[in-house]
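Loading example: each entry is read as three labelled lines plus one structure line.
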Amino acid sequence: MFGNVKDYGETFQDSIFQTRNGSLSSTNQIGNPVTYKLVRVAGDGSLVPATDEEMLEVKNLLEKNEQDMPVLPDPIQTEEYIPDEGSPSQFLQLENFEGFFQSETAGPYTENLNSRHEISTELSGNVELVPSKVLLQEPILFSSNGCSINQSTDVLNATASPKEPALSTAASKPDFSRVPGEISLANLSIKELQETFRATFGRETTSKDKRWLKRRIKMGLINSCVVPTTTLTINDSKLIGGDQDAIDAFSKGTVDEETATESIDTPASPDGIKGHSNDFGHSPVETFVDHYSGNEDFEGEDGSAKRVRKPTRRYIEETNEKQQIDGSMIPSKDPSSIQAVSSEGRVVVTRMVSLAGSRIQVPYVSHVRRSRPRENIMALGEFRSKSWEVKAAPEEGNLNLSPPQLSNDVNRVPGVKSASRCVQKESDKDHLKPIFTDVDQEMMEPELLDSSGDSSDDNFVDAPITQSASGRKLHRAWTISEVEKLVEGVSKYGVGKWTEIKKLSFSPYTHRTTVDLKDKWRNLQKASSSNRMEGGLKKHGSMAIPTHIMLQVRELAQKQSPISRVVSKARVVKRSRSRNGFL
DNA sequence: TTTAGGG
DNA sequence: CCCTAAA
């Protein structure tokens, strides 16, 4: 039930509470399958998970209220529940939900809630309560009303216990101790599951497949209510199947909001046989969010199913990085846990990881740092979907390598330099005829051969993969020749004319954007001005830049900033050209 | 889109 | 190297 909500806490000043636990509703029947998650509603409508303190505060509040307050009938207790907008105590007016979530007004948290009425009142303004219980009782009503809460709202993960048909109307005090662990689909019999299914979807099922039933039920519950949103700060929604550890962990806030609990997982086919569904059999926690929603699975069940946004590559990447750091997630080393699932026509490699005692699937990411940081096999999907204009080249055979083998290590090996230079990329199609031809470069810039920077950028085999995988350009150390070209370009066209320089002097280098040039120049300038590299103050990682270049840089930089730029430039160009034998 | 700067 | 504000 613990959706991981990205923490936008700092950005919001208001503190609104959402109570968790059905006890808020006056009657908390035993086995009340409803679970409310305590969250804070941010200014933009997104939900921020409650902190421990907040949880405690609310708890105390509620307990206090219990003492000096009569028990009121639970408005949504019965199946005959009818939304009554006139009654302030109807704090769970489904039809108001939409209003709730869209409400921009985020009033301050009321410290002294003395009665449920107050709570109710507050609710209409600031608090959002999503009763998941209703799902079981009034699936249709809820899904057509309360669940229409989408945009700019985050979702609450609902948990429900089929064992508790939510029939009890006996009023009871809040019982926080039983908040967790409502779910136990795992222990239900086929029949029970079928009943639950009926309660959830409003229709019978003859399926005898436990796994399938459980899956469907969970999906039905979640998807009919847990609706992804535009702001999508929920990173996960899944049902907890009686895994106390996980629940406790959550209660203690030990579950990192940013921890990846997302699963790029395609739900199994209805028959529960397809794909990797077997993995869920013994898993206390099952992820069932369909990020790709391309599946016909539950959508065929009830058309109300909403789609869940797929996590961004960036998110996954960072998420995985975090895992490595905080160790909150112990990635399974078991190779068998790694598997490829297909969705939306793509193939995604996932692996099982442990989170708070539960097992979930996350996109596979190699945890072995290679020469290049961040490799993500997600690229595989990207790679396959992209139509690379790979021209016949010896390296093309590498395309058949398995992803791990395509690691960056390959392109760092000097020897793998592409024998055949690739054609210019489309971005260069309209570039002016480069001053330096390939031949010139080969002759003038011999060091390019051993600098991975050069031709590897056109290496369609590895560069695109690793690059798209990380979503970030792979770092390429600047070679001396590149620096020289840069300096030369600056001297020719002037500082700041990056586009010109790029076009006229860097056309062969399909990487190195104008921004790169600018950045590099900035660095050079800094280096040349501030410290005199001589005294061994040079940074370890970078190569020593010939002093004559640095002098040039300094000179150019000096003439560029002061005044009379036009004059300076003219002189510079002149000098530069004569120096290079041009003109 | 291109530049300039901050991160 | 990335992201953005400006122009």
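The two ends of chain A are 73 Å apart (CA to CA).
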